[in-house]
Amino acid sequence: MAETTLLLDRARQWLAEDPDPDTREELAALLARAAEPAVAAELAERFADRLQFGTAGLRGELGAGPMRMNRAVVIRAAAGLASYLRANGDGGLVVVGYDARHKSYEFARDTAAVMVGAGLRAALLPRPLPTPVLAFAIRELGAAAGVMVTASHNPPRDNGYKVYLGDGAQIVPPADAGIAARIDAVASLTEVPLAADGWQVLGEEVLDAYLARALTVLDPAGPRELEVVYTPLHGVGRDTLLAAWKQAGFPAPTVVAAQAEPDPDFPTVAFPNPEEPGAMDLAFATAATVGPDLVIANDPDADRCAVAVPDPAAGSGWRMLRGDEVGALLGAALVAKHATGTFATTIVSATLLGRIAEAAGLDYAETLTGFKWLSRAEGLRYGYEEALGYCVDPEGVRDKDGITAALLIAELAATLKRSGRTLTDLLDDLALTHGLHATDQLSARVEDLSLITAAMGRLREQPPTALAGLRVTRADDLSAGSAELPPTDGLRYYLAGEQVRSARIVVRPSGTEPKLKCYLEVVLPVAGAAELADARRAAAGLLAALKRDLAAAAGI
Ligand SMILES: O=P([O-])(O)O[C@H]1O[C@H](COP(=O)(O)O)[C@@H](O)[C@H](O)[C@H]1O
Ligand SMILES: [Mg+2]
Fold first, then answer.
1. Which residues lie with the beta carbon below 6 Å from any ligand 1 atom?
2. Same domain, yes or no, for 467 and 390?
3. Contact 474, 493 (CB under 8 A)
4. What is the DSSP letter of 189?
5. Which ranges does the record mark as transmembrane (predicted)?
6. Of ligand 1's atoms, which has the minimum distance to the CA of residue 369?
7. How close is the Cα of 266 to the center of ligand 1, in Å?
8. Residue 73, pLDDT score
């Protein structure tokens, strides 16, 4: 009872301070019905804690309360960041970007108002623009920090807040904990001064500078003959991608008409994530009438890039390449360009990049999931992760960038096309040289987060000893941390069997969505081109069996 009173007090205090009439109205309505058990549970969940920094900053459903994304949460986060910057002597400029989601502009403006109120300088990007433009602008402008208001590819009801420091990379420990402590120290919103004006709104020159840098990933004399169907999935990628395409000299892509304009309701897709089944249906329908060489999609904040290739065997006529496939292709493209430095990927991505780097005599590194880790790999020249994220120009953008990745994959496809070859042919070459690295993902979306904790618990209590006829030869609990990796909530299994050269599974809760994610890789030797089709079939069968057995072991 005392607990309930405390919770209601907290909710009422929140309501009294909430600057947004929309969330005030929502919370007042909930409080009026607080006696109903379902509403009481909802309030308890919203006020149990506050949103924490995850894989990519704060992310959550829009709504009232500290466990939701709203103006009060954003103002507190911005105040915590401002206080952290001042304490570390980094007082200076904070550059703020935003996508086209519900409330994104308001959250960006509030962030600027808090920074100016705290005695820092703030600059807003001129309009909704891709996340990589913000990541670029931080170092271009010599800012002390950057904020990008976006929930990327999440459902329409979500929003989020990515935080970068002056090195242009997203925050990791201990900075995230340092900022979090200062957010916690904001006792009341009434003590956060909000400036009414005094921040700068940047002009087109920041975008021009981004585009000029983006173009440097290409060979100016490289081939440009390539037909593309493109979708920004109702997000903010279109104008930047089209400008990049035009400046590069590629023929203008056909843009999927129904998804071309930014729309916070993402009306044509269940989830605006190119990884989700169905998200590419309209793009494939457009491709069926245009007959392009490639279909390219950006996620709504255009830091991811999805690529599909013609496949007569597929119902739609198109096959989405996996992030691991595009990641290997871009790696091969950079090797062909004589890139030097470190090639890196994450522990949940395929190990093929390691083989490519090794063969080219390049350093190779593996990090935890997320570009906040990957972008910090020492000497990084190229980094990618299986979640359709690629950083092909870390000096320009220290984060994944769906625009430069699209440019480079297009140049690679055009180069291959000139000699009558395709991306698929190059994937075959890589399999013949390095072995077939086949990956898949099992992901379970839940309503109730405790189901994820329970599944992780089951796997920890009863670790699988065999899956799909392969023996588990080593099981790592990644929560312990190691010399190579900081601690994280995850489990890793290495498997062996006659059918495979090696196999690996990683299981972890998503840090951006209520999902449990299991990442699978099997590596099969391939003796010659004649065996490749059989090897691909065998790998697909094995991955399907592994997913089935793993789902049973995890109880998901
Ligand atoms: O949402 P985005 O495009 O920024 O992508 C974000 O989430 C992805 C999935 O993370 P998780 O598996 O924890 O959900 C990460 O791989 C990525 O680095 C991060 O920036
Ligand atoms: Mg994104």
1. 55-56, 152-153, 299, 303-304, 369-371, 385, 387, 389, 510-513, 517
2. no
3. yes
4. G
5. none
6. 16
7. 19
8. 98
Contact by Cβ (8 Å): 97, 133: yes
Contacts 24+ apart (CB under 8 A), 534-542: 535/431, 535/436, 536/436, 536/438, 538/499, 539/436, 539/438, 540/438, 542/438, 542/468, 542/470, 542/499, 542/500, 542/503
* Residues of the chain where predicted confidence (pLDDT) is lower than 70: 1
Task: Report the interhelical angle of 352-359 vs 423-434 (nearest 10°).
Answer: 80
Return the best residue to mutate from 347, 367, 369 for the ligand 1 pocket (most ligand atoms within 8 A of CB). Answer: 369
Q: Are residues 22 and 139 in the same domain?
A: yes
Residues 360 and 460 in one domain: no
Question: Which CATH number does the domain housing residue 541 bear?
Answer: 3.30.310.50
Segments of 370-435 assigned E as strands: 380-385, 389-391
Atom of ligand 1 nearest to the CA of 374: 18
Q: What is the chain's alpha carbon radius of gyration, rounded to the nearest angstrom? A: 24
Query: Each residue of 294-333: pLDDT tens digit?
Result: 999 999 999 999 999 999 999 999 999 999 999 999 999 9
Q: Is 152 a catalytic residue?
A: yes
| Structural contact between residues 163 and 111, judged by C-beta atoms closer than 8 angstroms | no
Q: Which ligand is nearest to the CA of 512?
A: 1
* Domain co-membership, 497 together with 416: no
Q: Are residues 415 and 276 in the same domain?
A: yes
Range of the domain at 160: 2-203
What is the predicted pLDDT for the residue at 29?
A: 98
- To the nearest 10°, the Cα dihedral for 332, 333, 334, 337? 120
User: Which bound ligand lies closest to the C-alpha atom of 154?
Assistant: 1
Q: Which of 304, 388, 307, 302 is nearest to 345 (CA)?
A: 388
End of a domain among 153, 180, 203? 203
For 287, the 3-state DSSP assignment is: helix
ipTM of this complex prediction, to 2 decimal places: 0.94
Q: How many domains does the chain have?
A: 3
Q: Whose CA is nearest to atom 11 of ligand 1?
A: 510
Closest-lying ligand 1 atom to the alpha carbon of residue 299: 3
Enumerate the β-bridge partners of residue 468: none
Structure-block tokens of residue 19: 């600057």
232 in the same domain as 137: no
Question: 299 alpha carbon to ligand 2 midpoint, in Å?
Answer: 5
How far is residue 415's CA from residue 294's CA, in Å, rounded to a whole number?
13
Give me the catalytic one of 152, 349, 375, 510. 152
Q: Whose CA is nearest to atom 20 of ligand 1?
A: 56
CA distances from residue 55 to 104, 334, 373, 539 in whole angstroms, order as listed: 19, 27, 9, 30
Does residue 180 sit in the same domain as residue 229? no
In the prediction, which pLDDT does 1 show?
A: 57
- Best residue for ligand 1 mutational test, from 53, 55, 131 (most atoms within 8 Å of Cβ): 55
DSSP 321: P
pTM of the complete model = 0.96
| pLDDT score recorded for residue 89 | 82
Distance of CA 537 from the midpoint of ligand 2 (Å): 32
User: Residue 3's pLDDT is what?
Assistant: 79
Q: Where are the beta strands (DSSP E) in 228-355?
A: 228-231, 254-255, 294-298, 305-310, 318-320, 342-346
